[in-house]
Amino acid sequence: MLPWKRVLGPLAALLLAATAATVPTTAAHADSTATATTATATAAASASGWNDYGCKPSAAHPRPVVLVHGTFGNSIDNWLALAPYLTVRGYCVFSVDYGQLPGVPLFNGLGPIDKSAAQLSAFVDKVLAATGAAEADLVGHSQGGMMPRYYLKFLGGAAKVNALVGIAPDNHGTTLGGLTNLLPYFPGAEDLLSAATPGLADQITGSAFLAQLNAGGDTVAGVRYTVIATKYDEVATPWRTQYLSGSNVRNVLLQDLCPLDLSEHVAIGLFDRIAFHEVANALDPAHATATTCASVFS
Q: Which residues have C-beta within 8 Å of that of residue 17, sequence separation ≥ 6?
């Protein structure tokens, strides 16, 4: 990956933190436009079998799949490839929006992560009520692969979730390629980040949120965990910190499955069919097939 791409994402995060603190009141118009756009996209998704609350899980796939987007993502854009990949394979698929900030349309996952986990909890209850299923499976990208662990550990989610699949999850925080180490050299930067975009501050290595999340172990009993990482990740860094320890954990490096796969943090979640194949394996391990470079054609 080119050096400028390695810093573009983290710099954008810091810039958005500054922007969010000074959003003008005229953002209400942007919010209404964004709401209309999202409603149209959601309707299209439902028409294709995704976010269809009339979907009933089959005997082959008895649990609905809830997709949890990453920071700056939303319930539609993050899943334009993976949601259809799973629906065509017979899954009931739903996607949640969480972590919205006032005056910041479309870019979600920026609110306090404990509050985002509560939003996920309510959404899972809604999906289970609609489908009649006793449990759901969760698949999340980036923050979306880490945040559900709070739901599982502190909000009773373990009784309602069979498996959590994290795609490039920042389970133990991120240094953003070392950029977070520069924050102390900019007076007020850490306070701005925490006040304007608490969801970003919560993800920095060493945050109080992560200390609470990981105290006493990474996992809870009764849930299967899968982590799918890429060594080219430039956002959840160092990439090895994505891995979990504990029972019922499977940590997977994408390049061990296909050495030719160059996907970085965004690509692995948005359109990497090799990663998607491994997601499908994690959702249905009894019928798993080998994930290789050829899985891009599966």
A: 192, 193, 196, 197, 200
Q: In this model, does residue 291 exceed pLDDT 60?
A: yes
Alpha carbons 164 and 242: distance in angstroms, whole number: 14
- Give the residue ranges of DSSP H helices in the chain: 3-20, 27-47, 82-87, 113-131, 143-146, 148-154, 189-196, 198-201, 208-214, 254-257, 265-270, 273-283
- Is pLDDT above 80 for 147? yes
End-to-end CA distance of the chain: 26
Residue 26 buriedness (CB in 10 A; 0-12 / 13-18 / 19+): exposed
Could you tell me which residues come within 8 angstroms of residue 132 by beta carbon, excluding any fewer than 6 positions away?
Answer: 56, 57
Distance CA 111, CA 66 (A): 20
Listing from the earlier edge strand, what are the strands of the sheet with 249-253? 93-96, 65-68, 136-141, 161-167, 224-229, 249-253
Highest mean pLDDT among 23-27, 41-45, 216-220: 216-220
At residue 15, the pLDDT reads 42
Answer yes or no: are the C-beta atoms of 98 and 140 closer than 8 Å.
no
Per-residue b or e along 96-133, where b marks 16 or more CB atoms closer than 10 Å to that residue's CB: bbbbbbebbbbbbbbbbbbebbbbbbebbeebbebbeb
In 3D, which of 275, 100, 84, 129 has the Cα closest to residue 197? 100
pLDDT band (50, 70, 90) for residue 194: low
pLDDT tens figures, 257-281 = 999 999 999 999 999 999 999 999 9
In this prediction, residue 172 carries a pLDDT of: 97
**Per-residue 3-state assignment (H helix, E strand, C coil) for 40-89:** HHHHHHHHCCECCCCCCCCCCCCCCEEEECCCCCCCCHHHCCHHHHHHCC
Alpha-carbon gap, residue 19 to 37, rounded angstroms? 22
Q: Are 113 and 145 in contact (CB under 8 A)?
A: no
